[in-house]
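Let's practice the habit of predicting before peeking. Look at the sequence and jot down your guess about where helices and strands might fall. Then scroll down.
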Amino acid sequence: MPNEHVRNLFNAPSERRGVVAGVLQSAAGRGLIALTSACYMVWMVACCMGPEVTMPLGGGAMVAMPAWAGSLLGMAMASAVIAIWFKRTRSVPDSPSWLVAIASIMTLAAALHLVWALDRSLPGAADAALYAVMSALTGVGAALFRVEIDRVFGWIGTQQTLYQGMLGTLAALVLMTACFSCLADATQAPLVLYGVALVLPFAASLLLRRVVHGFPRVRYFQHGRDVPLPFPAKFVATSAVQGIAAGVFYASLFLFGVPASGSSHMAIGQLAAVVLLFATLVFLRLDFNRFIFKVAFSFVAVGFLLAAMAPGLPQLGFVTLVAGFCYLDLVLWSLGACLMKNMGLPATWVASCPGAALFSGVLVGGAVAYVVLGGRPYGEAAILASFAACFLFACALFLSSGSNLKYGWGTVLPGEGGLEAGDLAGIVRFVATERAVTQRETEVMLLLAQGKTRRAICEELTVSPDTVKTHVRAIYRKLDVHSQQELIDRIVAEREHLVDDGDDIALG
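Done guessing? Here is the structure:
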């Protein structure tokens, strides 16, 4: 029905106000999470920068590579190793000293980057060895910290992860801008960023410890530890496509001599991504299919088309591409939180598998750009950009499906469960995540959706009537309903929407 379709597409006025209020409350109540992610983002940028790397090809031939190639290779390998290790051991380090160890690795990586960037007179063998060590340390540190921050996102849920991602991006943007503008000599500004990167890991570690301190320790670290580990195929495939497109973009920037960070156009693109995400959250219902494949993938594809069709105005394509990739990063971060929160998957698994695909994809995309543009960047750039746009549109058509949500983005096979019509608990968890309903409120909401009375809820949860009354009032406010029957109708509508979407796609 048209009216029902419109309701499922756009937020109601009360929901729009709820998003705005949610962002403000998230900034005030959970600002430490945003600062932690900002420190991580800036550290990643600093440790993927640097002068070009000259590598021998054999026969006396040499090739110039961007500094980020080694770091990304380290991240890809480290993420894959972490995923395999966790699948075999199911071990989750929970000691406070673990974060200190990660911070130490990251600080050492930043220090080696600084030494390497300052001293370019080392013999070839020594320079290559230093580059290899710092790349490996960067990869290990980035992959391990990614798991820990994803663990936080999985705990706070989908909506809050989106809010914190936007706030963290803004904070990182401020810090990056300050680093690059503090020196008049632009060539020296990256060294300032390297210096900042020396203290960021321990700053991030302290902030993260402060955040985690407020969570129930056992439940937090043991979440998903004993569940089966299905391979998140769709999530991994989406991350790989993102990586390939990003690799083409950043390798092209390197070949054209365009700085990949610190420019005003990069900052404008990141700011545009935050504004775009905020607007879509306010006006559109949260739907990962829509946000990823219809908004983000289209945005990136249009950026490539602009780069191909408007070579006289390269800034336009550049800003559009940066905005699209940043938007996609934030949404995929939130998707990971959704799989952890709603599907019960562990953070180590959800962070490492797509992470390995993302970083490997960047390397593959960069290699493609080198092959196509090597020695003739200007003549072939438009063709490559057009191909990248077509590739993204094709992948969007292939990967987009209403059943993605129903089957947990590849974590549940058809016929094995997922959000089927009878999975009331699964539907309730998704609704709860979208509306920032707490875990205890979710338990109450499930019992309400089952038609149980407040007295029965008191007996089952062993809580007082006043406590149940408080939870019910909060649930009604967050879902914009006024009675138990309205709540049940809302859950039924959500269930029908999810199941019908999956069936429609399958039949189409």
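How did you do? The first strand starts at residue 53 and ends at 58.
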